[in-house]
Amino acid sequence: MSAAMGISKSVEAGAQGDAGLAESGDATGLGRVLEPGVIDVSHGPILYLEDVTVQFDGFRALNKLTLSIDHGELRCVIGPNGAGKTTMMDVITGKTGPRNASVNGRVFLGQTIDLMRMTEPQIAQAGIGRKFQKPTVFEQHAVWENLELAMKADKRWWATLRARLDGSGRGRIEQTLALTGLEDEAYRPAGLLSHGQKQRLEIGMLLMQQPQLLLLDEPVAGMTDEETMQLAALLNGLRGTCSMMVVEHDMEFVAALAGEAGKVTVLAEGSVLAEGTLDAVKRDERVIESYLGR
Ligand SMILES: Nc1ncnc2c1ncn2[C@@H]1O[C@H](COP(=O)(O)OP(=O)(O)OP(=O)(O)O)[C@@H](O)[C@H]1O
Ligand SMILES: [Mg+2]
């Protein structure tokens, strides 16, 4: 899969002069008009949460949470049980929103897309893919067909356009099989895959929809050590294809994703407790106190 599959749909920092593809000028001078589906990341962040509060019966699951993820970043989020990590993903994806909960604050995809005003399907169409813990693949269908079905389920106009340009989309399926390390399993029914392979297939299915931002909530739960490191390699290989936010408790997995320089966010009691390199947050007294223990 080429980097162009994901990143090219965003207006990147410093690329505004190259306006032909991504945006069109407005002769009336009323401002620029982005193509539908283009996320404006000209200021850096692909995702921006500001002062987000979510209350369940008066209990604040998120408490003035402010957080931003840069375009192209792979951000790991850690924190104790009940910190609000899943709730944060529910708000980003529209599963929890002003329509069904007490939610305040701002959640933006790029500069211009106000996720709080959108429904769950609209947010998915805008380019946010979410991996839930339990893999949901079509067990009776071959791996190849699972990827094909995921591609055909993509109703966005550019996807249709691209499918036409790509012919059958065969090339994209082959690229995704290679990325997910499932080439040898292409014609096996998905039901026969190991847990780790099913998880990778589901990520492949999400990739067929060409997300700009991929959210993964505890993706290595139930995996063997070997499967865990395979998934780390897969996600590291997706850098340049899409931005990612990964919630995990498995610190070896987090270390494999964050490396020495990657930023890690620690959530506790619905807010950011600490943010920095994994080494720095591990040494933070408040993080040791509330999460890692002594
Ligand atoms: N629909 C809901 N109704 C009431 N309380 C909820 C609801 N969803 C979450 N909560 C509460 O909000 C808090 C945050 O939960 P959340 O699932 O976001 O934590 P988490 O950080 O994902 O934890 P874990 O690491 O265990 O997955 C918890 O106290 C939880 O009980
Ligand atoms: Mg959770």
Radius of gyration equals 19 Å
Helix/strand structural class: alpha/beta
Write down the CATH topology of the largest domain.
Answer: Rossmann fold
Report the uncertain regions.
Answer: 1-9, 12-33
Number of domains: 2
Helical region count?
Answer: 12
User: Quick one: how many beta strands?
Assistant: 14
| Main sheet record | 6 strands, mixed
Ligands (ions, cofactors included):
adenosine-5'-triphosphate, magnesium ion
Oligomerization category of the chains in this entry: single chain
Give the terminus-to-terminus CA distance: 43 Å
InterPro entries: ABC_AA/LPS_Transport, ABC_transporter-like_ATP-bd, ABC_transporter-like_CS, ABC_transptr_urea_ATP-bd_UrtD, BCA_ABC_TP_C, P-loop_NTPase
Organism: Cupriavidus malaysiensis
Domain ABC transporter: 47-294
Protein name: Urea ABC transporter ATP-binding protein UrtD
Word description of this protein:
This protein is α/β, with parallel strands linked by helices. It has 2 domains: 45-127 and 211-292, 3-Layer(aba) Sandwich (Rossmann fold), CATH 3.40.50.300; 137-210, no CATH class. It has 12 helices and 14 strands. The strands form 4 sheets. A 6-stranded mixed sheet has the order 10-11-12-7-13-14, sandwiched between helices. β11, α9 and β12 (243-247) form a beta-alpha-beta unit. It is globular, with a radius of gyration of 19 Å.
